[in-house]
């Protein structure tokens, strides 16, 4: 009898391990699908995982991931519905709120996204992603004081993060404080050379009248990426400041070819 009980216990334990293993296996397979950007398969596998263990407390995070897979497929409304469903289950999850805010932003619902970011920082006063995204929104909408407050938090949380440094560089440039902006671009370039950093620093130097240094930045940026339209736009601007209109037109054509809008080109020559 004792042997039979032990055998039965072994079968039960085996079954539990099998369920747990299936749950993890589905998640691992979903992760592989994500690496291939196969969002349909990734969603199907996570739903299999949730179905295999309906009461698993981790399911709400799997549901949040499903919402993001739907978002990556371009199904914004469905993604919003799924993420709102997840948030109803776990209202204090900053991950779910940040995910939903991302979808709301893509849908053009910036005020709703801001409310989600506000909620995130109420729950977690050191949430980098929320401060970064809210700071960016405030910056582009002209809320200098709000943007500066959020960027101040970014400096406390991750002072050397490239995203922090870049947002600070852009903020100071927008405020006409070009020396401070250049100092942040210098830090970025010291970390890693990217064409966009040289573009930003070049625009600051043009605003200051440092044409030679701006030209050097543009040249180095183009060495890194010859298809960066912003660099050709920047060089066209430099040519205009130096009264070299034909050279400016040639670079404007290159900027247009590499993604800069015609409206921006027209505005440049209308100055």
Write a structural description.
The protein has 271 residues and is an all-alpha fold. Among the domains are: 28-124, Tetratricopeptide repeat domain (Serine Threonine Protein Phosphatase 5, Tetratricopeptide repeat), CATH 1.25.40; 197-271, Tetratricopeptide repeat domain (Serine Threonine Protein Phosphatase 5, Tetratricopeptide repeat, Alpha Horseshoe), CATH 1.25.40. It is 81% helix and 0% strand. The protein has 15 helices and no strands. It has helices spanning 2-35, 39-52, 59-72, 76-89, 94-106, 110-123, 128-140, 144-157, 162-174, 178-191, 195-208, 211-224, 229-241, 245-257, 262-270. Helix 5 (94-106) packs antiparallel against helix 6 and helix 6 (110-123) packs antiparallel against helix 7 (128-140). The longest helix has 34 residues, at 2-35. Mean pLDDT is 92; it is low at 1-19.
